[in-house]
Amino acid sequence: MFQIAIRGLKQNPFRYVATTIAIVLGVAFYVATSVMTTSFEDTLNGSIAEAFDDVDGAVRSTEVIETDFAEIRQKIPYDTGERVAAIDGVERAGAFLTGYAQAVTADGDVVDSAGLPPQGFAWLDDTELSPYAIVDGAAPVDVDDVALDEDTFADGGFAIGDRIRVLPLPATQAFTVVGVVGPNGDGDGLGGQTVAFSIDGAAQVFGTTDVDQIFVQADDGLSQDELAASIDDALRSDGVSGLEAITGDELVGEYEDTIGQVTTIINAALQVFASIALVVGAFVIYNTFSITVAQRRREMALLRAIGASTKQVTRSIIVESLLIGVGASAVGALVGVGLGWVLLQGLGTLGSGFDIALTIPPQTLVAGVLIGSINTVFAAYTPARRGASIAPIEALRESSIEQPARSKWRTVIGVLLLVVGVTMSISAVTGADLAALTVGLPATVLAIVLLGPAIIRPMSRLIALPMVRNGSITGELARENAARNPKRTSTTSLTLVIGVALVVTATVFAATMSTSTKGQLEQQITADHVVTVGPEIALLGGGLDPTITPSIDELPGVDAAVPFRQASVEILDGFNQVTGTDTGQLEQVLDLNVVDGSVTGLESDEIAVSEAQAERDGLTVGDEVEVRFQQQAAVMVVAGVYERDDFVGSWLVDNAVLDANVTRSLDTEVLISSRGDAGDSVTAAVAEVLASNPTADIETTASFIDGEVGQIDQLLILLYGLLAMSVLVALIGIVNTMALSIHERTRELGLLRAVGMTSRQLRRTIRYESTIIALIGTVVGLGLGLFLGWVASRAAQDTFPDFAIPVISLIVIAVVGIVAGLAAGVLPARRAGKLDVLDAVTGD
Fold first, then answer.
1. Tens of pLDDT along 447-500?
2. Of the residues 95, 455, 712, 741, which has the maximum number of CB atoms within 10 A of its CB?
């Protein structure tokens, strides 16, 4: 039977072209995502390991705020380094202090760091402990000395001796470029723009000389574990609390864990779309084997007639599918490696600051081949059983093995599942019992799969109405051909149903997000202009110097300029972001719809909370909460509860609180209210103030809101790109089904030509049939996607309350479905049009 399977593949290699393509695309997508994320992770980990190769341990605070991705630790005094250096077993020690800093070029611009947060640090003179080394010039020593990383130095057109500005300090405070820094070793440094200062210069930029941690190196012969234990013992003996020592391996491991968490999330998200492509490919494989097995009924009959058992015939088809699956998956794995390399080159052109080396994880290649092979065998199993179970005498007849009649039980079960699924999904989102969605949504999708054959004929008749106008014989034939085998047509269209449903779901949910976000921000922001800084700058605690906002507030035509800033804190044992602002002027730029207490003029021991957060935590006005900032904790009283939290978040304090509890508190937004029709003049005046702050921009409130909504649209475009692979596989499935069915209907098509149908009419019939199948998939996908989008929107209605249906976008999707159907029928139609009439009729 193995030899029969091999011979079958050799004699009909083109029969499985679409199956092979579907497998290759799905596996390639899966492997490429793993190659890209693994390569990026390994490069980062290699750079970190190289940077801290000579670091045997670190001393840091035990006070920590846990976040989802990293730890925010309390800083420790700079002189801790001297105390640690004096401990027995410590060869050398160096204090490491880092924070936001960004060099400004002579043109008043900043150097693009490809989205990576720019950073500064206090220079470590000890080359054994520093992640960086001087590659040109000298190390920063004086308070106004600065050294730049190689990429920033070159891209910004800097030269040794230049006097430059460093953000966030004002333009009046200049630094002298004294050197260029590079990685200390063969690594790539820590990535992004890097600015090095003396400890005194760093204190001015970061607002403190307290450091993040102390790097240490052990005496010869002392292990890392022994070093950490020795330091801990010495600190306890000196009565020092709140500090701990960890090994260098633990330090590197924590950095790698943080990177691993991020890359794991990215990889998992991408693998979801790869899995969708594989599932869609399974339908293509199922349809291919269903048709080819039906076309080989005489071959199966002869095998059965000469003594082959049902199991043996089934096994021969399974072997075919396994050979195809293994071969196509292996090709897909290789294509995935190439695609991953291309993606890495794209990252490199963005100037990420890393020379990303290609890493090919063997386990990913093995997994890709296994997944593709198992997917193929699983999809081919049912057609194989169906083909092998036919009686020899019946298989020798002219009738097809595939039974066009639909199962009544399948329809009944489908209807019941649909009722249960829709009912549970609706009750889940209307009754806030979201757990029921885990049953409701899968039941709904499964119901659509089961009901496919039952709805094919009525849908074919409805969709074909424009094609059968004026008694068009081509439209009539296309309609009947699409409906003659409902199960096959259903399976073919289901591939497109999945892709379209996901696209529509994403589109509807994105429209809901956009409408809700826009409506909520329009309700909240009463200011006329907004000043913002880049998100990658705010990520590292960067922003505008607090002296900028008072300068804007004094401009002619400005009624109020209110700054906003954020700080990472721990409240009620959970990580949160708290927003600081000038609460005395808050009502002039924002309407938070206060529901209890007050949010204006908050005192230094008062905090306001959003209504949703207050309900979750059971808080009311007058309650006390402990807020742990990075350096210290404070007990604060809830002074007000507000409803609208889209702009300020869940927690709100006066800026005086952040000034007292945060080392360097910088503004990330400034809302500006202007007088009367002074808008244009205010824009020009504020832009002049911001001229020396290239990371900040001013825009109208409407433009700012459009920008926030635009980010959702960008995310939607990304989703479209990721789902494109699934839609492509679905269209390949339609082409495949049409091509194989033409082979199956060779005599029929020959007879049509023999009785007078022209080649052009025959091609049109095939194109129409393809369009009907594509439109069935598109229409059902639209309906399913609308329902799923509504469910997703209702589930998130607390955050996005305004459900929206993007009619224009849905029309575009429908049009694309029509065009895709026509395109999918072009090649099969051309093949049908080229059939020789005599050969087709005689079956030669």
1. 988 888 888 888 888 888 888 776 678 878 888 877 777 877 887 888 888 888
2. 95
User: 114 pLDDT exceeds 70?
Assistant: no
Report yes or no on 409 lying in a domain. no
**Per-residue pLDDT tens digits for 396-415:** 555 444 455 556 888 889 89
Cβ neighbourhood burial of 146 (10 Å; 0-12, 13-18, 19+): buried
pTM: 0.80
Of how many residues is the chain composed?
844
Residue 271 has pLDDT above 70, yes or no: yes
For residues 604 and 495, state if they share a domain: no
Dihedral of CA 613/619/622/628: which sign? negative
Same-domain pairing of 750 and 809: yes
Both 674 and 730 in one domain: the answer is no
- Nearest CA to 571 out of 615, 620, 621, 607 is that of 607
Q: Which residues, in sequence order, are CB contacts of 359 under 8 Å at separation 6+? A: 35, 38, 39, 42, 43
Instruction: Please name the residues in contact with 236: beta carbons below 8 A apart, sequence gap of 6 or more.
Output: none
Q: What is the DSSP string of 793-836?
A: HHHTTTT-------HHHHHHHHHHHHHHHHHHTHHHHHHHHT--
Q: Which of 222, 248, 263 is the last residue of a domain?
A: 222
Both tokens assigned to 568: 């990472």
Q: Is residue 407 part of a domain?
A: no
The one-letter code for the residue type at 80 is T
> Residue 3, exposed/middle/buried by CB under 10 A (0-12, 13-18, 19+)?
exposed
Peptide bond into 168 cis (omega under 30): yes
Residue 660's region, left for phi above 0, alpha for psi from -120 to 50, else beta, is: alpha
Structure tokens at 534: 């880049």
Number of H-type helices and E-type strands within the chain: 26, 24
Domain count, the chain: 4
271 half-sphere exposure, CB direction, 13 A CA radius = 15
pLDDT at 189 over 60: no
Tell me if 410 is assigned to some domain.
no
570 and 485 both lie in a single domain: no
- Rg (C-alpha) for the chain, rounded Å, is 34
In angstroms, rounded to a whole number, what is the distance separating the alpha carbons of residues 30 and 35? 9
With a pLDDT cut of 90, the percent of the chain lying above it is 32
Structure tokens at 128: 């054994």
Structure tokens at 342: 């291309």
Co-location of 215 and 309 in the same domain: no
Indicate if 646 and 583 belong to the same structural domain: yes
- Asked whether residue 464 is domain-assigned, the answer is yes
Does residue 140 share a domain with residue 42?
no
The burial of 367, by beta-carbon neighbours within 10 Å (0-12 exposed, 13-18 middle, 19 or more buried), is given as: middle
Please state the rounded mean pLDDT for residues 92-110.
88
207 and 338 in a single domain? The answer is no
**Which residues face 370 on adjacent strands?**
none
Task: Out of 660, 694, 728, pick the residue that ends a domain.
Answer: 694
Q: What percent of the chain has pLDDT over 70?
A: 89
Domain that holds residue 373: 1-57+223-402
